[in-house]
Amino acid sequence: MTDQRNNHLTGNGLSREAVKFIAILTMTGNHAAIALLPPGFLHSLLVNIGYFTAAVMCFFLAEGFRYTSSKRRYGERLLLCGVLSQLPFWMAFHFMTFNMMFTLFLCFLLLVVRTDQRFAGKRLILGILIVFASGLCDWPVLAPLFTLLFWNAGEDWEARKKACWYVVILYAVFTFVSVCGLLLSPVEALIHTVLSSAGPAAACLTILFLYNGKETNRGGRAGKAQKWFFYLYYPAHLLVIGLIKMAMVL
Question: Which pTM does this prediction carry?
Answer without folding.
Answer: 0.92
